[in-house]
Amino acid sequence: KICISIDGWGNKFKYPRGHFVKILGDIGDKNVESESILFERRIPFQKFSKCVIDCLPDISDSAKNDQCCSDIEKILQDNSKRMDLRHLTICSIDPPGCTDIDDAIHCRLVSSDLGNEIYELGIHIADVTHYVLPGTHLDREAYRRGTTVYLVDRRIDMLPELLSSNLCSLRPNEDRLAFSVLYYIDNSGNLVESHPPLFTKSVIRSRSAFTYSEAQCILDDQNDLSEISVMLKKIAAITKHLRMRRLSRGALTLETSEVRFEIDSETLEPIELNLKESLETNKLIEDCMLLANVLVGRKIYETYPNLAILRCHPRPSPDALKQLF
């Protein structure tokens, strides 16, 4: 396979005009095929430039955690608006092998008056903005890449690994900066009017990082009465109410069968293909993230009604609807 660049295609010519860029390699080679996919989709996958790397915090491998903790203590002292939530029982749920943990959750009872229990449901998103300053080479490169791209055997990061898998990854037992949405809810999943949602920058310390299967085992174990088990079961109950209410309002669900490759840890070659199982914990996290998006969207619209970007879908075409029935 080779890579060429199209320079132009005149009206009088049968074929376009272009020039040779590089040889990718043999057809069928896994690395060549992966690189071809990235080229075809115009996904930037080159190593980060020195200008981008120079924007990162100067933290040696031996002192990463200690220095990170001391920096966070200084941030808390300098910024009284950033809430310290490290005392809360927070956890994350992700696919196996996930190192870029960008969201976490918690739930706790905050009030119980004559059986009227009020719970605080917290959704925490890694605060990348603290490290990616506007207008820097790092900011412009992240803008150019747009998103982290996941292939079967590799990940093309939007941000350098020091951020994506370390300083901005909500790893357990490590202090991390986050944006937090705190939502106050009763046992039936209703918003508590006396406790409006709270949006804040925060510092969190996750207690555990679960896979979806591990978290599902905790939900299924009725004998597990540990603090984190009770919390996950309460979040599951709350998100079920939220999901039922969302569906009753006509929410559209688009479920497709996803495949998952089992990769040999030594050769990195695919050895098995399975359908990805959708667990209750997948829906739990999905509903938590949807809730955070809805709450933040409402807050932005209430605060900046003339600047908020609203996503409105056009009506589906009659032909497209016929294919569904």
TrEMBL record:
It holds the Pfam family RNB. Residues 82-322 form the RNB domain. InterPro entries: Dis3_CSD2, NA-bd_OB-fold, RNase_II/R, RNR_Ribonuclease. GO terms for molecular function: 3'-5'-RNA exonuclease activity; endonuclease activity; RNA binding. One of its GO terms (biological process) is rRNA catabolic process. GO terms for cellular component: cytoplasmic exosome (RNase complex); nuclear exosome (RNase complex). Keywords: Exonuclease, Hydrolase, Nuclease. This is Exosome complex exonuclease RRP44 (Trinotate prediction).
